[in-house]
């Protein structure tokens, strides 16, 4: 079969499972399509990544395929259409030519996912049946399905709560089945996705007995439209093609795309909905936190309602971000307030918000509430009228409480009047409100339906930060942790940076929080604080700033899909480990072949630490150029101090880093005593956070035995060497990965390597302006070579090539390579044929975060 035939087959195969209402089209295509093509073409060569991890390619292993086929003979979803979800939009419809389809109930979504998933994985349709046929996959709840009631004891379902599910293989009297059950339709859908994931990752079915309950109630995305969007359809920016702005949802597209604006539903909305549901995400705030009040206008609300209708079967609820001063916006005339009327205690203010919230609820009955960025980065807020964040948040909370809605009030504030150290400001503003005794004898002023939404670190989504001290210190207020999925500071759509390890690190970091008696809490990791088990918070939430756009693969970089996936999995269960999640994702997205899985997981697992190393090693924070937060500019000094890299690096002839110890800014005191002591002392602070807390002398000895300057330079180099290794590792995957995605990632890795090198060079050169020191040349990949009997060494491992003089008549051959580190491996890839000529030596080794590689290019010249 030619490649194009194969593509066609695959395209048809995909489409045949997109048929609505559970009808399975019996198709002869399957007999023609091989269950498994040759290794290099297991996926169609032009596959663009548009299915995210919901790929249901035929199982390649013939034995496993046979076992799956033998075990999975029918799909049974009783009363699938009975409990229809609310629909506001009378004639909700897909854009012409769509491949996805709308469903009316959550159980229909589950059933159709199984039809599509099992059909794809098994390479043949699996029929939807009634009754209880042998080898059935049964999905439902005790309410929806008498069969589920019969098969699953009520006591097994009781502990699962509203969202938890169980998946079991059963065998009774020779009658085999698999049951996927939960207490709600949504739980059954979650179980369905978990089951399909098992098959995609090729786990055995025998003895299947899974159950899972999410640890956090509200697992949300925040969507910022085109701000920090790296997945728009215009390669050079955030969009603009065909009248679309690059965002995933079209509200105001023009030109060719005007007819596709909401309420029209596009395929990508449903792919996104299915993907979100597959990992248990259950809400999305659809617009930028720097909010445009357009989203509160009647016309926009109608559009939002249509979007909510389409997402509702998947359990995804909507919220919007608001501007605190929206009531003054002329677009709402005559229903407007004056600036003076924005008093959070006034009936006028509260009633205004109640009216808006009611309009939203009339169209979107399950509307969640508002996300608020107030008195931050120029956004208006209660402080404009002399009130504090507690007054503002509670005013809004009171307005929406009767409607059952919540306020997600962000703590990303850094008013320069509060303290000279930006990192101290948020706690100084929020902490006292949380500690405040109330007239009724309770402590803490924030209302029960307020969540404080707090970034993982005290600064701003850097690739490594200490945990935000607010976690654990806000005992009396519900906490939502906010993680950035879109890669603003972590390589955008160019760098491969898997963020699972970053989030795992923060969620599992110990706050050393103490209770009222001063003793350490038993459960006190950041994850425990967020899920409420540390301090008994009644409600729990986690928020990811999403990276969806309208690009074919929805996330820009193919590997950025992994970050969305990992966010969802960790939102469900923050105790999972990032490596396991990466492995699942690779199996679902790229390949189940051992070599591919091993290689890609390895690439992902070190990628974040590598990025930290070549961008901001040893805790030097925020060295990004201000224009786009992608490249370095350590010398930049902006009008606002706390936006300037120089404010964070504090480079001088003595050393580098921001002293936040008790003798510096004193920020360390915001942590609980164990951490305050640990971070406050340069002897005990973890080295990867060194410059977050200390101004480090250039000559200070570090744990490696090297002085700070040398270690710093080697960290920059090592980070880049990891990227070099990733490029070579990826090249070896060519036979295992479909052609288009292989080429696209390959191109990104080349740019990644160059840009990582620019980070290293820019930063190292800038630090040299202060310390006047040479680049050390004895790092992990340092070598000496012997040419013509002469030993030559002292190469800067960051340099792209080296000139080596060869005496007249001497041989240009490299006769020996001596690595500084005996564990390093050296290989002469090519020798010079004469002089002038070029030779290449490859040196490989291991850093603490993974393999590293450097190709030394030697230009041999007469000399
Ligand atoms: C910063 C982003 C900016 C956001 C801000 C926020 O650069 O675009 O508006 O965070 O979270 O990192 O409000």
UniProtKB/TrEMBL annotation:
Enzyme class: hydrolase
GO biological process terms held by the UniProt record: xylan catabolic process
Gene3D superfamilies: Alpha-glucuronidase, C-terminal domain (3.90.1330.10), Chitobiase/beta-hexosaminidase domain 2-like (3.30.379.10), Glycosidases (3.20.20.80)
Domain Glycosyl hydrolase family 67 C-terminal residue range list: 555-777
Signal peptide limits: 1-37
Sorted UniProt keywords: Carbohydrate metabolism, Glycosidase, Hydrolase, Polysaccharide degradation, Signal, Xylan degradation
Reaction catalyzed: Hydrolysis of (1->2)-alpha-D-(4-O-methyl)glucuronosyl links in the main chain of hardwood xylans
Entry GO CC: extracellular region
EC number(s) per entry: 3.2.1.131
GO MF annotation list: alpha-glucuronidase activity; xylan alpha-1,2-glucuronosidase activity
InterPro entries, per database record: A-glucoronidase_C_sf (IPR037054), GH (IPR017853), Glyco_hydro_67_aGlcAse_N (IPR005154), Glyco_hydro_67_C (IPR011099), Glyco_hydro_67_cat (IPR011100), Hex-like_dom2 (IPR029018), TAT_signal (IPR006311)
Pfam families xref list: Glyco_hydro_67C (PF07477), Glyco_hydro_67M (PF07488), Glyco_hydro_67N (PF03648)
Self-association and partners: Homodimer.
Protein name stated in the entry: Xylan alpha-1,2-glucuronidase
UniProt lineage: Bacteria, Bacillati, Actinomycetota, Actinomycetes, Pseudonocardiales
């Amino acid at each position: 079969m030619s490649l194009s035939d194969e593509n066609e087959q695959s395209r048809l195969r995909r489409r045949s499972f997109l048929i609505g209402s559970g009808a399975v089209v019996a198709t002869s295509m399957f007999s023609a399509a091989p269950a498994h093509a040759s290794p290099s073409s297991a996926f169609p060569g032009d596959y663009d990544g548009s299915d995210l991890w919901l790929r249901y390619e035929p199982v390649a292993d013939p034995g496993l395929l046979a076992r799956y086929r033998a075990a999975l003979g029918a799909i049974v979803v009783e009363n699938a259409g009975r409990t229809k979800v609310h629909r506001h939009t009378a004639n909700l419809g897909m854009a012409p030519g769509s491949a996805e389809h709308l469903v009316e109930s959550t159980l229909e979504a589950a059933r159709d996912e199984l039809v599509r998933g099992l059909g794809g994985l098994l390479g043949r349709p699996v029929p939807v049946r009634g009754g209880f046929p042998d080898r059935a996959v049964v999905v439902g709840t005790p309410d929806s399905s008498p069969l589920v009631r019969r098969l699953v004891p009520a006591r097994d379902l009781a502990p699962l709560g509203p969202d938890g599910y169980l998946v079991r293989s059963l065998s009774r009297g020779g009658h085999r089945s698999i049951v996927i059950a939960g207490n709600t339709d949504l739980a059954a859908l979650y179980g369905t996705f978990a089951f399909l994931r098992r098959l995609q990752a090729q786990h055995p079915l025998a003895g299947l007995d899974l159950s899972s309950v999410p640890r956090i109630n509200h697992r949300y995305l925040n969507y910022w439209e085109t701000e920090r969007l790296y997945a728009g359809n215009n390669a050079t920016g955030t969009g603009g093609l065909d009248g679309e702005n690059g965002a995933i949802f079209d509200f105001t597209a023009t030109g060719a795309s005007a007819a596709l604006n909401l309420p029209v539903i596009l395929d990508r909305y449903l792919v996104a909905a299915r993907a979100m549901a597959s990992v248990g995400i259950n809400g999305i705030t659809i617009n930028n936190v720097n909010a445009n009040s357009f989203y509160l206008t009647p016309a926009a609300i109608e559009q939002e309602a249509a979007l909510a209708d389409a997402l509702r079967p998947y359990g995804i609820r909507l919220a919007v971000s608001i501007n605190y001063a929206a009531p003054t916006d002329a677009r709402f005339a005559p229903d407007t307030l004056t600036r003076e009327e924005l008093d959070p205690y006034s009936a006028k203010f509260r009633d205004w918000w109640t009216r808006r919230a009611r309009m939203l609820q009339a169209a979107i009955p399950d509307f969640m509430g508002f996300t608020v960025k107030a008195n931050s980065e120029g956004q208006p807020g209660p402080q404009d009228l002399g009130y504090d964040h507690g007054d503002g948040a509670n005013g809004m909370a009171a307005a929406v409480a009767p409607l059952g809605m919540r306020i997600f009030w962000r703590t990303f504030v850094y008013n320069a009047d509060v303290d000279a150290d930006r990192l101290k400001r948020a706690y100084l503003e929020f902490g006292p409100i949380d500690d405040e005794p109330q007239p009724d004898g309770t402590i803490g002023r924030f209302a029960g339906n307020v969540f404080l939404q707090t970034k993982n670190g005290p600064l701003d989504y850097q690739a490594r930060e200490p945990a935000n001290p607010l976690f654990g210190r806000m005992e009396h207020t519900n906490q939502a942790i906010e993680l950035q999925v879109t890669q603003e500071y972590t390589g955008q759509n160019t760098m491969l940076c898997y963020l699972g390890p970053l989030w795992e690190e923060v969620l599992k970091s110990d706050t050393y929080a103490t209770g009222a008696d001063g003793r350490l809490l038993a459960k006190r990791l950041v994850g425990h604080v967020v899920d409420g088990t540390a301090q008994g918070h009644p409600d729990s939430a986690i928020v990811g700033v999403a990276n969806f756009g309208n690009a074919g693969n929805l996330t820009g970089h193919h590997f950025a899909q992994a970050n969305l996936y990992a966010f969802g999995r960790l939102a469900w269960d923050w105790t999972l480990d990032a490596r396991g999640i990466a492995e699942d994702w690779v199996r679902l997205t790229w390949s189940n072949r051992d070599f591919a899985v091993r290689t890609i997981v390895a690439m992902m697992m070190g990628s974040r630490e590598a990025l930290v190393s070549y961008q901001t090693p040893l805790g030097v924070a925020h060295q990004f150029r201000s224009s786009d937060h992608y490249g370095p500019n350590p010398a930049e000094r902006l009008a606002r101090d706390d936006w300037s890299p120089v404010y964070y690096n504090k480079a001088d002839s003595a050393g580098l880093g921001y002293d936040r110890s008790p003798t510096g800014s004193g920020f360390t005191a915001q942590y609980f005593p164990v951490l305050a002591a640990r971070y406050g002392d340069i002897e005990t602070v973890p080295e990867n956070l060194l410059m977050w807390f200390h101004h480090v002398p250039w000559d200070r000895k570090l744990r490696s035995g090297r002085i700070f300057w040398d270690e710093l330079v080697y960290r920059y180099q090592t980070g880049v060497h990891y990227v070099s290794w990733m490029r070579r590792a990826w090249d070896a995957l060519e036979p295992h990965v479909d052609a288009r995605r292989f080429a696209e990632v390959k191109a990104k890795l080349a740019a990644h390597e160059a840009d990582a090198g620019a980070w290293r060079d820019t930063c190292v050169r800038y630090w040299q302006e202060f310390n006047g020191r040479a680049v050390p040349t004895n790092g992990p990949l340092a070598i000496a070579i012997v040419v013509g009997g002469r030993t030559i060494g002292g190469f800067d491992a960051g340099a792209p090539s080296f000139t080596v003089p060869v005496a007249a008549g001497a041989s240009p051959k490299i006769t020996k390579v001596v690595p500084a580190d005996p564990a390093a491996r050296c290989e002469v890839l090519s020798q010079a044929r004469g002089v002038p000529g070029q030779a290449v030596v490859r040196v490989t080794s291991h850093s603490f975060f993974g393999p590293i590689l450097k190709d030394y290019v030697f230009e041999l010249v007469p000399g």
